[in-house]
Automatic annotation (TrEMBL):
This is Solute-binding protein family 3/N-terminal domain-containing protein. Residues 2-229 form the Solute-binding protein family 3/N-terminal domain. Keywords: Signal. SUPFAM superfamilies: Periplasmic binding protein-like II. Transmembrane segments: none annotated. It comes from the Bacteria. InterPro entries: Solute-binding_3/MltF_N.
Length: 240
């Protein structure tokens, strides 16, 4: 049994190593789960973020690596049970010169420029906080956004707090700033996504995820990529 899965370059979740290997926390999770349900061959497809939904919907591959679950996206694909819960944050220059600690802080500074990946959920979060269109600079992927931040084209790059920690650790002149998350809003969850006409694969993956998420092996594997107890506990309890 062969399964094809699409991914983008966004450490620590998924990326292509210098040696040409596809790796990352979500890649490893997919490998463990798919092998457990009898998949003997896993094919990885490097793509762009905006190709995820149409690609799996049109059958170019069988599933996507985890992304944030939204009602709009659920109109096009079928999501698995959640596999992580991640808050947002910024990557900024060391010392955070403009004190950008939240989307609201960006909205209050007309001279602040915020980098975002086209199609990701952070855009709506920023707009809801009052960030103006003139403050956004859009990029096709994380490497382009990080390069722009290092060059001073933008003042902050918005992403997940976990992903931002990985970016900052690889760039000494940058640092990660996590946003505070209110209890009322909760923390957004992410999940694998599938073609709606492939319920058998979705059901098999969900059954294995419910068994595996929160296990000692799962926690140990995710810890190697920087995912903490906080990012696993809520989804592990929900998946039971």
């Amino acid at each position: 049994m062969k399964v094809s899965i699409a991914y983008i370059d966004e450490p620590p979740f998924y990326w292509t190593s210098r040696e040409g290997f596809v790796t990352g926390s979500d890649i490893e999770l997919a490998d463990v789960v798919l092998r457990a349900i009898g998949v003997t061959s896993i094919e990885h497809h490097l793509t762009s973020f905006d190709a995820f939904l149409p690609g799996v919907r049109d059958g170019r591959w069988d599933m996507n690596v985890p992304m944030f679950v939204t009602a709009e996206r659920a109109q096009h694909v079928a999501f698995s049970v959640p596999v992580w819960a991640l808050g947002d944050g910024f990557v900024v220059h060391h010392g955070n010169p403009k004190t950008l600690t939240s989307y609201n802080a960006v909205a209050q500074r007309s001279d602040a420029r915020l980098g975002l990946i086209t199609g990701q959920v952070q855009l709506n979060s920023a707009k809801s906080a009052g960030v103006r269109d003139s403050q956004f600079v859009m990029f096709k992927d994380q490497p382009d956004a990080v390069a722009a931040l290092r060059a001073g084209t933008i003042d902050a790059f918005a992403g997940t707090a976990v992903g931002n920690r990985a970016v900052a650790s690889a760039n000494r002149e940058l640092e990660a700033v996590a946003h505070e998350t209110s209890r009322e809003k909760g923390v957004p969850v992410g999940a694998f996504s599938f073609n709606k006409n492939n319920p058998a694969l979705l059901q098999a993956v969900n059954q294995q995820l419910r068994t595996y998420l929160g296990s000692a092996d799962h926690r140990a594997r995710m810890a190697r990529y920087g995912l903490t107890k906080a990012e696993i506990d809520s989804i592990a309890a929900a998946s039971v």
